[in-house]
Amino acid sequence: MFRKTYAEINLSNVLANTQKLITYLKDYNYHIGVVKADCYGHDGIKVVKKIIEGGCNYLAVATLEEALAIRKYYRTFPILCLGVISNEDLKVCIKNQVTISITSLNYLKSLNYKLLKKLRVHLKINTGMNRLGISSEDELNEVIKILNDNAIHIEGIYTHIYNDSNQKDTVNQIEKFEKITKGLDLSKIPIIHFGASGYTLKYPKLPYVNGCRLGIAFYGLISNELELKSTFSLYSNVIQINEVNGGTVGYNGSYKVQENERIAVVPIGYADGIIRQNTGRNVYINNQKYPIVGNVCMDMLFVRVDNNVNVGDVVVIIKDNEHVMEIANHLKTISYEVICSIGKRIPRIYK
Length: 351
What we know:
Largest sheet: 9 strands, mixed
């Protein structure tokens, strides 16, 4: 940490959150930990370990690369890839026991059925998000016929709830899932899972659903009565303080200094995931709020401070979950993007 800029990951809180979630959702048989995007920006196999220790009995990732990174440490723990895997990579999935998603009839037809027989398969149903998934009963029936004709076992079937804050949309998705799958005996499919965290915590378990997918909830970045804990903080430090009397600060002179001001320089920037839109939001120094001013640079940013701040002081770029939500509101985005955007050159320190 030569520039003293790092993210602190609280593993104890990840474990505590996971245990609390599993206990709360005890009616489900399968608790699938979605650990894509380096555990939502938390990075490292240590976070995956805590999610498994906390009670998750299946993992889900977005890409084959993510699955293989976990396989270096967990050789047999079940992992579902939620994304599309090309036919030429099926042998890699077989070798590494990676479960694949069948996301459409056309995709299924592109695969080698002999290889597919050696894999665990989950069917993705498109219930309205229109990203990936089988979109109609007829399409599903054709998929099932091909799988049955080639003795390919279906381990799971699932959908993704895209707007859990809207009850009408969510009910429509559930009804569409039931309509598309009405010709299928769901009792013969071992795992039926809905997601994501928000839906799982807001809505009652459906009788035919025995699995849930959890992601952002592991990190407490979701509103619910469980009082989940913060797990991600981001720190840097003051490397220089400029006494500026008039003039401007930063690229394009976007910040105009009206009178004598103290401007602290902090070694973190948009190359680290602190994009330029962060200008105007607060950081914490010595437990006091101070605003980011001027255009954020690639590797540095500016903070307007007072006489209580000195070179070497710690700058809390992201303090806790409440601060994450404040930042998300400032950026007009969601908490997921705030933490997932923090780049690879920021070391993760595990607490």
